[in-house]
Amino acid sequence: MSTEVLVLGPTRVWTAGVEVPLAPIRRRLVAILALDRREPVTTEALIHRMWPDRVPATARTALHVHISKVRDAVPGLIETTADGYRLGPSAGLDVETFESLVVAAEDAAASEHWAEVLDLCDDCLRMWGGDPFGDISEETYALPVAVRLGERRHEVDNLRLQALLATGRNDLAVPHAVELVQRYPYSERFREGLMLALYRSGRQADAVRVYQEAHRFLGEELGVEPGPELRELEERILAHDPSLGPRPRPPTPHSLPRFATSFVGREEQLEILASELRPGRVVSVVGDPGVGKTRLAVEAAGELLDRFPGGVWFVDLGGATSALSVAATVARATRTTEVVESLNSLGAMVASRPVLVVLDECELVLDHVRAFLEGFGGGAPHAAVLATSRVGLGIEGQSEMVLRSFHRRTHVAVRLIVDRIRAVDRSFVLDEEAFRALTSLVEAVDGVPLALEIVARWVPTLGIGETTRLLGDVSAGSALETAFDWSFRLLHRGDRALLGAFSVFSAPFTLARGHSICAEPGTSEFDTAGSISRLVEASLLATEGPRTGTVRYRMPGPVRDLASARLTDRGEVFDRHAAEFRAAAVATGAAANNEGQAAAFAAAEVELADLRQAMAHLRDVGDWDGSAEIAAGLARFWYSRFLGWEGRVWLDESLARPLSPRVESTARMAAGFLAWAVHDYETADRHYRARLEEGRKAADVGGVADALYGLGLIHQKRRFEDGAAMLDEAAELYRSLPGRELELGQCLLFRGLHEVGEGRTADGVPMLEEAVELLTRAGHLRQVSKAHRWLAHAAWLEGRGGLGRRHAATAEDLARSTGDQPALAGALIELAFLDMDGREFGGAAKRLAEALALIPQDDLVDVCQVLTPVAWLAELAGEPALAGRVLAFIDSVYDDSGWLPANSRMCVRRLEARLASRGECDRPEAEPPSKTEVMAGVGELLTRLVEGAPGGGSSALAADDVEGSSHRRG
Q: 597-606 and 608-620 are packed helices; what angle lies between their axes, rounded to 10 degrees?
């Protein structure tokens, strides 16, 4: 069972992917032990650090009790030594992983491998959850370590900024540098980076203003002028020094897997594929198992990154079985965020973008692949598809390359096997005798590349002759099967059993997953790790993932097929697999909306193929409860990854079957949420009402409250009074239930924001203030951010700009720290309104441009929530015609969706009335403007304002409505 101790922020302990709840005093104990890493801490030192102010008389006894309780909760976490106590060796420590990642990033930077630097820095920053050793960071003994880690974080920030500039990602470098300048105001190198990023983005004036601000700030704060580097950079910017950039366009995003071995023997085919793969083309690589189809396709795609600026996306179809799973796998892999109605429509969506899609292992889902490619063929000729399959696709107009083994290309085969031998034994010399011996070995496996990979790993141990002789003693089917069977026999019995069991995984798996699902009872995780290492050495497993951190293991498709055929206890392994991922899905659902969400959702994304497989297995054996529980647990994950339509299909299928009352209730609430999230309010209403009826019959107070909460969210948007009454009733029920502070806080949050949205701040503010208290106590900082956002809106309505900025800044800080993009967009909207009050139109434009970038562009309702303050800004900047067109577009979207969000309702009405009263609202009589037209105008406005040229004209609205009177805004 894997254990992780996290101290880059508040101290937390995770075991098997689940956080272990510990009392604050015990978290302090773990943090103290983690401070000294693996070194023992004496009992006396522990006592004085645990109780720094006053050591109680019973301190020694109390310490032993706390140590015992921690050990009960997390076996093996604390180890007793002759000198005291320390963290056990099996516990992972995020500080150690962080330090190794920083070293790796520094090494990559020294070699100017900037793309790798960027990946490593992002890995580092994802680990950072707050002040290091947050539970003890203010203590004297912890301060040096916390300060040193802070300096290492500073270095990571600097490396990431350098990497963004070096790779031409100025769109990301600007906001990153702005954040760094705010966090490290005395650092001139971050101001240099911001100036350079702005200049390379075509914003010379802004770059010069950064220098002027630095000159003012450093003079006022320290009485010094900027250093020579900063002064020289300003001069070069003013002179348009060509050596400053702009840099080449950013590298093409891709998801191609990495291979640990070199590419050998297919150079000619690689050149042919490079010439064939152009926009509008479909090319397939067809061949027997093990001939290297996937490797060739990945290498070819990697050569063509510059040809497809929209991305090169690798789609592993090995775990897909149905049209739904194929569609969901392709949609997620290609970053398709629209709702997918069919494989044909998905093909058309992908074809409209300049992307290359690599479809791997198509043979088991050929009909579904053909349906996708039929839609692809009807789209615009911007994209290309490269498919691998054991049989031909049968698609008209495609190009097909048949890949064969190296049977008649002995020199190439020998070159491959020598390369693999030398990866293990660098001293190997290919002389004439060795060449003849290897020729026999190549013949024994018919020159199949994967078979050569397998047998090559044994040569340094057994020798060429013995390897060839043993191969001859095996009589199997194909050459690959012969090589596999021979290698399989040479494995230890326990390794053979694990290899067969590992074939249960559809996605790359971790050591922890492999051990808990596949290891025999009584086997230690250490023994499983040894088996995995030997299977990797035998080329029967491949590794993938970062050099440091969590490594995952992948079984090549042909090896999986052969290993699966030797799995004797198939039913038991698949049952354990399904049970493990059922628990994982439930844990993912429990983590939604709290601080564990990002990590849980990231794990679910990697393991999605196994989660789907677990659902399908439970469905096939008639365990509908299990299948429904996985589907319900993944509901918010699916929605966050734009796969809500897939979750709805699974949940609808489950709800059509007999379920236990508990699971049916959970599934109905999940189905209602997914319907609500995509604005299908009729379906959501039906699910929530069914749950309400069930809850009332069973006297399930919590279930009734949950259903009323869901119904209240729907009906507040339709008939405000009905929805408000439902949320009020739900809140009263939650108050009567222990442990439901989160749900009560959410009720008050939504009630409060709608009251504020209607302008009734006196009613809404107390609800929001109580919501902040409850949600903070529950640890749901994402929701706390939203509450502060609405408190900021209320303050803006009341003309209390200072209070509004404090709330909005808190909302922004919380949203950024939790990675909640919608909440961050909301905070930026409020700050933009406050900027408009002060006639800081450039600042408001910057915030609204960032907010628009955070919103999925296909979700027009959310886009319109940002366009509402943009309309205000257009009017204030003297462009009432644009304001009118934006409002017309907003009206058309809200008419189609059937509701007007709270933050837009009053603002839209007020602005419409103002424009109409002055006859300035240029509204089309027939068709409303298109999104393309509106966004073009909005983009021009925001760009002009950001660059400091707000355009002409004064505004009566600016004169009347931005002075701060609450009655004028209401």
A: 70
Question: What are the structure tokens assigned to 788, written together?
Answer: 């502060």
Residue 950 pLDDT greater than 80, yes or no = no
Residue 546 pLDDT: 56
Contact status, residue 477 vs residue 487, Cβ threshold 8 Å: no
312 phi/psi in degrees, rounded to 5:
-120, 115
Cα–Cα distance, 169 to 348 (Å, whole number): 29
Contact 199, 244 (CB under 8 A): yes
pLDDT at residue 951 greater than cutoff 50: no
Among 865, 597, 895, 737, CA closest to 708: 737
Using alpha carbons, list the distances in angstroms from residue 880 to 173, 866, 935: 34, 17, 16
Model confidence at 339, pLDDT cuts 50, 70, 90, reads confident
What is the b/e burial string over 112-122, where b = at least 16 CB atoms within 10 angstroms of the residue's CB? Answer: ebbebbbbbbe
CB count in 10 Å sphere of residue 625: 19
- Measured at the alpha carbon of residue 206, what is the angle toward residues 119 and 796, in degrees to the nearest 5? 90
Q: What is the mean pLDDT of the chain?
A: 83
| Token pair for 524 | 């230690």
Taking Cα atoms as reference points, which of 825, 896, 835 lies closest to residue 867?
825
Bridge partners of 4?
14, 92
Taking alpha carbons only, the member of 333, 328, 343 closest to residue 377 is: 343
Overall residue count recorded for the chain in this entry: 970
- Residues 726 and 338: their CA atoms lie apart, in Å, by 32
pLDDT digits (tens, 9 = 90+) for 742-787: 889 989 998 898 888 778 899 999 999 999 998 888 777 778 888 9
Name the nearest CA neighbour of 496 among 486, 481, 506, 510.
486
CA angle 872, 873, 874 (to 5 degrees): 90
Picking from 204, 206, 201, 196, the residue whose alpha carbon sits closest to that of residue 243 is 196
Only one residue has tokens 């839609």, namely: 375
Report pTM: 0.63
| Spatial distance between the Cα atoms of 637 and 264, rounded to a whole number of angstroms | 40
- Considering only CA atoms, which of 121, 198, 203 is closest in space to residue 162? 121
Percentage, residues of the chain above pLDDT 90: 21
For residue 18, what are the β-bridge partners? 15
Name the residue with higher pLDDT: 99 or 381: 99
